[in-house]
Design brief:
Layout: E1 3-4, E2 10-11, H1 16-31, H2 36-46, H3 51-62, H4 70-83, H5 89-102, H6 106-119, H7 124-136, H8 140-150, H9 161-174, H10 178-191, H11 196-208, H12 212-226, H13 233-246, H14 250-261, H15 269-284, H16 292-301, H17 310-322, H18 326-340, H19 345-365, H20 369-376, H21 390-407, H22 410-423, H23 428-445
Antiparallel strand pairs: 1-2
Protein name: Tetratricopeptide repeat protein 38
Keywords: Repeat, TPR repeat
InterPro entries: TPR-like_helical_dom_sf, TTC38
């Protein structure tokens, strides 16, 4: 007889105790609290025939977007597939989604999880995995709309409603509806202050609106709830570092890099991404980051030939350019070109964005600002194709603006600065760029 989880979804396994334990593990993942994989391992050790527990574990590993974890991903996927004949249709769709992801067809994986979410609107796990997939593929409006599809089937009486509101908040922010995004995000945090994704959504609104002082205070004041056991703390501290950088608190931003962003030892790609993204911005503004580039680049080197996810590769290239490691730069470009010649979702990302972006970064590093602009400028309109958020992809605008100023291209510099000021008119960084662009104009006029 089919049993159900706490949200009413059918589960084929016959132990309610195991199903309840998986619900608790899922809640850790939904809140980005540690350690859902350890919880899953305990369930699997006690219930080795529980197909959905393996699918949960495999999906969590897959959505970390790190090829270094492929062996663990395959172990869980293989076990889930062997148990699939005993699973129900919902569970098999979860398994098929992870298989598609593992095979490199991320779009098909998201479609499978999305189908589960339509057929079972209270399957919060399918919704979260599809939501993360939309993020990695840069599907900004689907981040909003996929969650909107299920909202009528949720309310405060359904466990986990806050997690749905937090995802909806992030989707609204990425779609540009900042007022409603902040409203939904704050409601989600009120329901569960440990919900790192909801805190993240509110933080993104503040980032996009240039509310840097408020954003830094918001993260500090809310940290007692989400930080102690968070798997996501490094990224929220990265956001605070951006807020501090905006206020010209370089020492504070570097302290966050040293003490919080690197707290996990840069053991996974997601942590490395934030390290690169912060140091690149600091370096663009002319700040000395000491030996940090070398340490970060060393961590990236073991991944530079993966050709697994172009977004990772571009951030890795920042570290190789920042550290002056020409050998790793060449290896990374070769890997990207091989990936671009292949098939699957990442091949498209590598062709469209990864290769030209990395060529632009390399050109910037050698002082060829004209080439950097030529490589990066066409990417602005389509950078979403390789995933990430608007805040993360803003690094292209930063790099282009600095390249235009260093090149002395007054017209382009002023155009890029005007674009930035239209979104964040009070930004000290944008105003400083405006002043430097204006000096180019004065020099040209003289």
């Amino acid at each position: 007889m089919s049993k159900r989880d706490k949200r009413g979804n059918p589960v084929s396994y016959d132990s309610q105790e195991a199903i309840d334990a998986l619900d608790r593990a899922c809640d850790l993942l939904h809140a980005y609290q540690a350690d859902p994989l350890a919880a899953a391992d305990k369930i699997i050790a006690e219930h080795p025939d529980f197909a959905l527990a393996y699918a949960f574990r495999a999906g969590a590993i897959a959505t970390a977007t790190d090829k270094a974890f492929d062996s663990e991903l395959f172990k869980s996927l293989d076990a889930a597939e062997r148990l699939a004949p005993k699973a129900n249709d919902r569970e098999r769709q979860h398994i098929h989604a992870v298989r598609a992801w593992f095979d490199g067809d991320w779009e098909r994986a998201i479609a499978n999880w999305g189908r589960v979410s339509i057929e079972h609107p209270r399957d919060l796990l399918a919704l979260q995995y599809a939501h993360l997939g939309d993020f990695y593929l840069g599907y900004s409006h689907m981040l909003r709309d996929r969650v909107a599809r299920v909202m009528p089937r949720w309310d405060n009486d359904v466990p986990g409603f806050g997690f749905v509101k937090g995802m909806y908040a992030f989707g609204l922010e990425e779609a540009g509806d900042y007022r409603q995004a902040e409203e939904q995000g704050r409601e989600a945090v009120a329901l569960n202050p440990q919900d790192g994704w909801a805190v993240h959504a509110v933080t993104h609104v503040m980032e996009m609106q240039g509310r840097s002082e408020e954003g830094a205070k918001y993260l500090s004041s809310s940290a007692n709830a989400w930080a102690p056991n968070s798997m996501f703390a490094f990224h929220l501290w990265w956001h605070k570092a951006l807020f501090l950088l905006e206020a010209n608190d370089v020492a504070g931003a570097l302290r966050l890099f040293d003490e919080d962003i690197s707290a996990g030892g840069f053991g996974q790609a997601l942590e490395l991404l934030d390290g690169s993204a912060l140091l690149w911005r600091l370096s663009l503004l002319g700040h000395d980051v000491g030996d940090r580039w070398k340490g970060l680049a060393k961590k990236w080197e073991s991944r530079c030939e993966d050709g697994f996810y172009a977004f990772n590769d571009v951030n890795a290239m920042m570290s190789f350019v920042g550290s002056g490691n020409s050998r790793a730069q060449a290896q990374q470009l070769d890997a990207l070109k091989r990936a671009a010649a292949g098939s699957g979702t990442n091949a498209m990302m590598s062709r469209e964005i990864g290769v030209p972006a990395c060529e632009g970064l390399v050109a910037f590093g050698r002082g060829d600002y004209a080439q950097a602009i030529a490589s990066l400028m066409p990417l602005r309109a389509k950078a979403n194709r390789f995933g990430g958020s608007h805040a993360q992809r803003d690094v292209f605008s930063w790099t282009l603006t600095e390249a235009a100023i260093r090149l002395g291209n007054r017209a382009l510099a002023e155009a890029l600065v005007a674009e930035r000021l239209a979104l964040k008119p009070e930004s000290p960084i944008n105003r400083a760029w405006k002043m430097r662009a204006g000096q180019l104009q004065s020099l040209h006029a003289g």
